Every structure is written in C-alpha cells, then in structure tokens.
Amino acid sequence: MRFVSLFLFGRAGRREVRLSDFAFVVSLRLLALLVVLIFASIVLFLTLESLPSLQANGWRFLIQSDWVPTEDLYGALPFIYGTLVTSFVALVIAAPVAVGSAIFLTEVCPPWLSKPVGFLIEMLAAIPSVVYGLWGIFVLAPAVRNYLEPFLSQYFGYLPLFQGPPLGIGVLSASLILAIMILPTITAVCREVFRAIPMTLREGALAMGATKWEMIKVAVIETGLSGIISAVVLGLGRAMGETMAVTMLIGNRPLISSSLFAPGATMASVIANEYPEAGSRLHLSSLTGIGLTLFLVSLAVNSVAKILVHLTTRRLRA
Amino acid sequence: MHRFLITLLTVLGLFSSINASAAPSINGAGSTFAEPIYTRWMSDFQKKDGTTQYNYQGIGSGAGIRQLLEGTVDFAGSDDPMSEKDAAKAKSEVLHIPVAMGAVVVSYNVPGLKKPLRLSGPVIAKIFNGGIKKWNDAEIAKLNPSEKMPDLAITVATRADGSGTTAVFTEYLAKVSPDWVGKNGKTVNWFIGSLGAKGNAGVAGLISQNPGAVGYVELLYATENKLAFALVENKKNQFVEASAKSVMVAAEGLQKEALEKKFKISLTDSDRKGAYPISSFTWMLIYSQMPKEKGQAIEKFAKWVLSEEAQKTALSVHYAPVPKDIRAAALKAIGEIKLN
After folding, report:
1. How far apart are CA B303 and CA B41, in angstroms?
2. By Cβ atoms counted within 10 A, which residue in A311, B95, B116, B162 is the most buried?
3. CA of B104, closest CA in chain A: separation in Å?
C-alpha cells in the first residue's frame, strides 16, 4: 500500500504546489498503474485457469504432440510449432520486402509518388483480418494450389519442405497471408525510422564519394538498424497473435509436418476453434494453458528483440 | 459543474425508471444450429405476448451449457444431450425439451456426375478416416453402378471448431463402423491428410474450391446454399435423400423410448422405413426447478414452441418439426416444472 501511495503522490516534500498540476500528475500515474494492473490480471487469470491442466499434464503439456479432446489428451507442441513456423516463414518473406519498400519510399522514389504509395501500404494495415481470410480462401489458396505448390514441388521437391499433395490450404498459405498482413506494419515503422535519420549523414556519405547504393547501406540501413529490428519484431508480434485469417487458411490439424504444404494449427487458431464448444474442464483449462504459452512466447520474443535493439544501438554509439 | 451533475442525475434517473418498468427478460444461449429458429420464435412470441423480453445468443452448445450451469442464462440450446458430469453440476435436474430436428449431409464436389451420389454408412466411415482415397474406389463404384466415377483423389473437409454437427455425424459413424467406436465427439481427431475449416460456411468453401472434396454440413445450410449432397443408405437398405420429411420419419414411434430416456434419444441410424440415418434433435435445456417469475416466462415460451403454430414456422425455415406424440410427452414434462 505504501508503494502505491508513494507511486501515486510522490514523496511528501516534493508535492506540486498548484492543485491542478498535482491532480494532473496523480491522474497520469493512475493511468500508468491501470496498465500494470491489467497486465497482472491477465497473467493471473491465465495462470489460475490453466492450473488444472498444468497439474494434470505438467511439463508434458509443452512437449507432447497428441491433442485428442475425446480422450482428454492435451499436448500443445503442434500449436507452438505451428505458430513459430508460420510466423518465421511470414517474417522471412515480409521483412526484406518491407525494408526494401521503405528504402524505396524514402530514398529512391520521387516525392509525388511516395505519398500515394505510402498511403496504400498503410491502408493494407487497415483491412480487417477476416477480409484477408476471405480473400485468402477465394484467391490466394486456389493460386497456391494451382501454381505455387506445383512449381515448388517440381523444382524444389527434393526438400522436405515442399513435399506432399498441393492442397492450397495449409501452412504455406497461412504464412503467405501473414506475410501480407505484417508487411504494412514493418514498412510504416521502417519509413519513419529512415525519415528520422538526419540529412547530413546522407550528404556526408555522398560527399565522401559514396554511390547512392553505398550511401543507403552506410547512412540509412546501418544507422537505422536498431529501428529496423524493432519494426520486424513488431511484425512478428502481430504474426504470432493473428487468429482469424490464419484459422481460415491453415487447415486446422494438430500436426507437426516438415512440409509447408501440410495443414497445421497455431496457438491462436486452436483457441478460436475449440473454445466455444470445449466440453470438459480439462479441455477448457488446456486451451487457457495454450493462451498462457502464447503470452509467454510473445513475451520471450519481445525481450530477445529488446536486447538485440539495445546491443545494436550500443555498437553504433561505440 | 452543477448543471453537469444535474444532467447526469437526470439521465441516470431515466435509465433506472426504464429498468424498473421493463418486462422480465429471459436469456438463452447455445447451439448455433438452432439460433435462426430461436430468434424467429422469440420475435413471433413477443408479438403475441408482449410481457416478456426474450433473447438468444448462438455461442455454441458447449458454451451454452456452461453458461446455464453458471446461471448466467436461463436456458441453453444444445444439439447434444448434457454429459453426466455436467448434469451432476446442475442446481436441479435439467430437462431436455426437443424443440426441432435437423440432419447432417455429406456434401461433395465431384465433377461429371449425372445423379446424386449414393453412399452407405460403412463407406462414409471409410472415406472420413482415410481408408478410401479415390473416387473411383471399388466400394464407391459398386454403390453407383450407373456412374463412371472419376480417377480423382478425395480431399476430406471437416469442421475444425468444436460442433454439434460433428458430434451427430461422428455418433452416426460410430454406429455404422467399428473403427469409429469411442472416437466420436464435438472435437474429433481426424486422420492426417484431411483439412479443417471453421463453421458450415468454411467447410462448404473448402468443398466448392477443391475438385474431389467431400465434407459434412448441416442440412439447413446445404439446402439454403443449394449444395450437392449424397443419398445415404439407411438400415432398411434404402438410399434416402435428407429432407425435413425423411428426418421426421426417423423420430416416429419413439414416444416410449423418449419418456424412458427423458428425451435424450439418438436418431442416428434409425431402423424405420424411409428414415434419413444422420438425423438429430436439438434441445432446449431448462432447469426443473426455477424461481417463479422467470420460470413462468420460460414455461410459457417452451409450451408455445411445441405448439402446432411454432412447429409450422420451423418447417417453413427447413427445420424438421418434432412428431406430435413426443411433443405431447414434452408438454407434460414442462407441466411438472417446480416453481418456487
């Protein structure tokens, strides 16, 4: 209690003179406290609700790959795998495209084109994910089934990644739709980062005799590296939590397959699918357990990214 | 500042007075399959009898039962009888009132067929566990002698979300095939190579998009969207088309059994002539002991739902009406509800 009052009102001696200032500071601190409380209550809820499942399954919950609700068997590994694989593939596809288009928009493209194109890319972020899912089912999935998957299995079929019948619905389509969905997030953040880089750096590089490409490499990419990493992590966060579009395209099977053509399931998609009709207490609790796992995985990824950003910034300063 | 306070108080006062004069409201939740008919019934009933406000939310049978047990809703709609475990948690015995019937059909996308496909229970069971992989398989060809079945791989589409439709369908499979015994339920582990989609619409989408695909959807959804579906062989070796009529046949002559099992009876794999074998009831779940005011409102509505008029409305939107003898028995059960 003392900490809360200290946090809210500060030390007695440093109290603000004017009442309005004082009220302003207190209300700001209240709002900040609210965020902390919401965060804590989410963690508390997830932990309490998933307790029965964690007690019944223990650590096996995370490493078991059988998910059979009819027999009350719950192993979350296929969903963890599905989330990590779809997000990773999406990132591999989206990150270069996004960084590339941000560079194009800030460094290469004439200003009259830069505004409308930038606007269009930002509009991509405003499309609801259900709409992405519908477009995925009716346009992307048939295209993947009829063109992309036959092409990949013909020329790269020796890789285990591209084996199996082309179905159009599966991990590959889900990753592609995720890539499209996180593209605007990464592009928008990168564009702001590049814009914030002082003109003098670019002029300096050019004055030293650098070509345009060398200038972009030295003055833009290397200077903005920590910003680029933050942008990519923001995209990754969105990819891991995305539910609707992925559910509509991934094929929803608790499978761990080396092939990207196979159907799969992610942590978010299985919760969306099974929560409304979850029968037994253990089933419900296991779904909440998956929610907790998703939360922790996102937290871990974000922390790693923060450390990465920190390290790159320090290296640049040195 | 004072003016603001006065306005605020007036607004609050208005709200509370609206609340005080409002009719008691009855909230139901559950089966998405039954949502359209409950909504229709409620608006019809409210027009006749304006004293009570009725609401229904299609959140899924399982969630409906959970909310009924927690007391957040007054009744639940379910396509599946309550489990023993759930029943033990209830405040008082939960009555299962059969309010309408539906069916699950096997829909397919096989190009070049002249007539509806004919399938038997064991063949459906094999298709849905990956045992039959091609449309020109001898077992399918034997049932469809007049067709030239294409050499096309079968893609099986199922519901990925937990669903009463899946429960009815797999309960039928468990009756006709030993491979399925004990593997039925709302969320099923399908074989590797099958695809899952969300909702009837998702499954129908997969079927229409993939030549060679087969899946199961509700009859209601299939008729409204004009999907092709198979004739299914029943116990009397007839190939029957699913319709409100053939579903009703499956529930004929079951009054005695209905009373014995307190209406929790299965209609799948019926042995009656002309019956469609993948049929089922949808139930309105209510407590057998209720507080007086709410209880009366629920009783009134439930009784009306079983009336000739309400059942005709159900038929007009493609639900199969409940046979008269079972309705009579259900009305008697509603009459025995204790109000306190």
Report:
1. 12
2. B162
3. 18
Which chain B residue has its CA at the smallest distance from A254's CA? B189
Q: Give me the long-range contacts of A103-106 (CB less than 8 A, separation at least 24).
A: A103/A190, A103/A194, A103/A216, A103/A220, A103/A221, A105/A187, A105/A191, A106/A191, A106/A194, A106/A195, A106/A220
* Domain regions of chain A by residue span: 2-57, 62-317
Distance CA A13, CA B279 (A): 77
A to B CB pairs, distance under 8 Å = 97
pLDDT at B20: 43
pLDDT digits (tens, 9 = 90+) for A43-80: 999 999 999 998 888 888 998 888 988 788 899 999 99
Q: What is the CATH number of the domain that holds B199?
A: 3.40.190.10
Contacts of A139 in chain B (CB under 8 A): none
- Domain shared by B327 and B285, yes or no: yes
pLDDT averaged over every residue in chain A: 89
- Count of beta carbons in the 10 Å neighbourhood of residue B149: 18
pLDDT value at A13 more than 60 = no
Q: According to the model, what pLDDT value does residue A58 have?
A: 84
**Nearest residue on chain A to B195, alpha-carbon basis:** A251
B200 within 8 A of B165, measured Cβ to Cβ: yes
Per-residue pLDDT at A5 exceeds 60? yes
Number of domains in chain B: 2
Helix (H) or strand (E) holding B98: strand B94-108
| pLDDT for B22 | 52
pLDDT in tens, B79-137: 888 888 888 889 899 999 999 999 999 999 999 899 999 999 999 999 999 999 999 99
Q: Which of A137, A251, A252 sits opposite B209 (nearest CB)?
A: A137
Contacts of B213 in chain A (CB under 8 A): none
pLDDT band at A285 (very low <50, low <70, confident <90, very high): very high
**pLDDT-derived band at A15, boundaries 50, 70, 90:** low
Residue with tokens 């450390």: A307
Which residue range forms the structural domain that includes residue B204? Answer: 104-260
Do B224 and B328 belong to one domain? no
| Start-to-end Cα distance in chain B | 48
- CA-based nearest distance A70→chain B, Å: 6
Domain A62-317 carries which CATH code? 1.10.3720.10
pLDDT beneath 70, residues of chain B: 1-23
Residue B206 contacts by C-beta under 8 Å, 6 or more apart in sequence? A169, B155, B157, B195, B197, B213, B215
Task: Kindly state the tokens that stand for A313.
Answer: 């910034």
In whole angstroms, give the CA distance from residue A190 to residue A269.
29
List CB contacts (< 8 A) between B85 and chain A.
280
